[in-house]
């Protein structure tokens, strides 16, 4: 018998409805960000938004299926610096603030995203 997934963080984020609202705010802000908006100029934002909802659901312990690419493959063609990664995290924090997500919940999510920098940041 397998242990049930710990979905406490997923629930604290408001489940799929909460994540859907969060990404609806976050993705347009990313695309408009003066520091990193340029990266997204060829991106179909509605598709990215959907992939992010699924990915954040999985990362936070919800029972979703993420069908997108690995972080390594999806970012390989872009030259992403640590500063770009940090800028994205800042925009995400702004969006989480706007959704009223408590700071402790924000930090639990960010702790699960942080290790992804190894696959995403590929340029000095
Ligand atoms: C924790 C940090 C990040 C996470 C969790 C993340 C997650 C994702 C996901 C799930 C996708 C979709 C992959 C797919 O459709 O198969 C994606 C695509 C993309 N990411 Fe990230 N990403 C992160 C950081 C960054 C950073 C720092 C940049 C650039 C500043 C960036 C730029 C992009 C772009 C431009 C695409 C779309 C590629 C396309 O048009 O198909 N990402 N990311």
Automatic annotation (TrEMBL):
GO terms assigned for molecular function: heme binding; metal ion binding; oxygen binding
Keyword Magnesium in annotation: no
Name under which the protein is recorded: Globin protein
Keywords: Heme, Iron, Metal-binding, Signal, Transport
Binding site for heme: 75
